[in-house]
Amino acid sequence: MGDFGISKVFLNKETLEAELPGTCPYMAPEVWGGSLMPASDIWALGCVIHEFCSLEVTFKSDRKVPIDFKQIVQKQKHEKIPNLYSPELSSLIDTMLDKAPEKRPTAS
User: Fold this and answer.
1) Which partner from 9, 31, 44, 66 sits 20 to 30 angstroms from 74, CA to CA?
2) What global pTM score does this model have?
């Protein structure tokens, strides 16, 4: 599994600010603000796990334009996963999708 949206950034450093460093529905709130960090990857993984459990994209937009995703990710809370999954998994996803990167779990 990989996100090749970031590959554009490495192809042309002069246009770094004009490129989006990821795939919109999986980009963490801080990424929309221009800050990319390890916690951003935890957010993206939380989106993927949430999607596996709910069978729906975690953050979605009808128009599918970047500005919509930015506003949705920064302002809305994700929906809970179905209750057939354990409370521990639901709690893990909630923590991974915390708007504050310092509150997300780490990979170490």
Assistant:
1) 9
2) 0.77
Q: Which residue's entry shows tokens 């796990």?
A: 49
Domain boundaries, the chain: 33-98
**The token pair that represents 1 in the structure block:** 């599994």
Specify the residue for token string 């500005």: 67
d(Cα 94, Cα 80) in Å, to the nearest integer? 8
Structure tokens at 25: 């529905």
Find tokens 């989006």 and name the residue. 20
Question: Scanning the structure block, which residue is given the tokens 């930015």?
Answer: 70
104 vs 84: CA distance, rounded Å? 24
How far is it, in rounded angstroms, from Cα 68 to Cα 59?
Answer: 10
pLDDT digits (tens, 9 = 90+) for 79-95: 999 999 999 999 999 99
